[in-house]
Amino acid sequence: MSLRYINQLAATVRRDHVHFPNRYGLNIAADLYYPKERKADFYPALIVGAPYGGTKEQGPAVYANELAQRGFVVLTFDQVYMGESGGQPRHVSSPELFAESFSASVDYLGIQVPFVDRNRIGVIGICGSAGFALSAAAVDPRIKAVVTASMYDITDLRGMMKPDKEQLDKMKMELAQQRWTDFANGQPEYKPSFPDHPYPSVDDLPDMDPINNEWFRFYAVPRGYHPNARGGFTTTSSLAMLQFSALDYIDEISPRPILFIYGDRAHSRAYSERAFDLASDPKEKYIVDDCEHIDLYDQVDKIPFTKIQDFFNQHLG
Questions:
Q1: Relative to the CA of 18, which of 101, 202, 267, 309 has its CA 20 to 30 Å away?
Q2: What total number of domains does the chain contain?
Q3: Does pTM surpass 0.90?
Q4: Does the residue 14 lie in any domain?
Q5: For residue 197, which of 181, 217, 219 has the smallest C-alpha distance?
Q6: Tens digits of per-residue pLDDT, 42-59?
Q7: Where are the alpha helices (DSSP H) in the chain?
Q8: Is the residue at 264 inside a domain?
C-alpha cells in the first residue's frame, strides 16, 4: 500500500478517525480534519467524497489536508459497502445510498462536532462522487454550496454506452441472468479492475486504450494505489444505475451555488458541461489549463484550492 496520502499531513492539522451511521443504520468510516490550534468557536465544514470506487485515503485526503489549513473542518469518508465502512456484500454500488452518505455526513457534523457551524456546511464531489453530491444537495437544503471536481455522472450509464435498443435490451438480459447466477452462488459477482499490488511505475503498465490507461496511471501505481480501491463494483450494480438519475433535480439546488471544476484535457469534461447546463443559477465553471481528469484527484499544483477556498468563504457566509 502507498502511504503517500496518509503520511502527508500538515503539522498544523489534526486528523481523527470517526464512525457514524447513515439513515439505514449502515456504519460509515470517516476521517475528520481540523486545525490543531482552533482560533474560533465555530468553523465552516466541508465534506469530500472520493472518486467512484476510491477511498478516503486517496484524493479526499489531499483536499482535506489542504483545506483544513485554510480554515475549514473537513470530513472524508468511505462509501458504504466500500473500504472501512459497513455493508454486506462488499463492493455493491447504490446511487441512493451513495448520495445518502453525504447527508449522513451532514448529520454527524451538525450533531457530533461541537466546533462546526451546522449552518455553514458545503460538499466537494470528486469524479463519481460529484453526481451523488449533487443528488444529495437537491433534496438536502442543509448543504449550502457544492463544488464538483472532474465530475462523472455514474448514473448516466445509457449515455456512457450510447446503446441502441437492441444493445440496451441485451445488457438488461445479461444483468438479469447474472442475478440468478449470483443467487445460486450465494454472493454477487465482483471483478476488480486493478491488480492486487501496484505496478512499480507507469512505464510498467500493459498496453490499453487511453482512458483505461489514465485510470491505471492513478489506481494501479504507487501514486494512488490503495488495497481498498481495486476498482469496479458488483456486476449487477449496473442495474441500480439504470434505475436512478442523479441530475434529475439539479435545478432545485438553486439558490444555493454550484462550482464545476474540470481540466481542459479531461476526458470527462462533457459531464461537467452537461450538469452546468442543467443547473440553475447561481452556477460557475472553472476550467484548469493543461489538466487531465485524474490531475484533480491529487495534483496540488493543478487543484485550484484558492478558488475553492474563496468560493466557500463567499457562499458559506
A1: 309
A2: 1
A3: yes
A4: yes
A5: 219
A6: 999 999 999 999 999 999
A7: 4-7, 59-68, 95-112, 128-139, 157-161, 165-185, 210-219, 238-243, 269-278, 295-298, 305-315
A8: yes
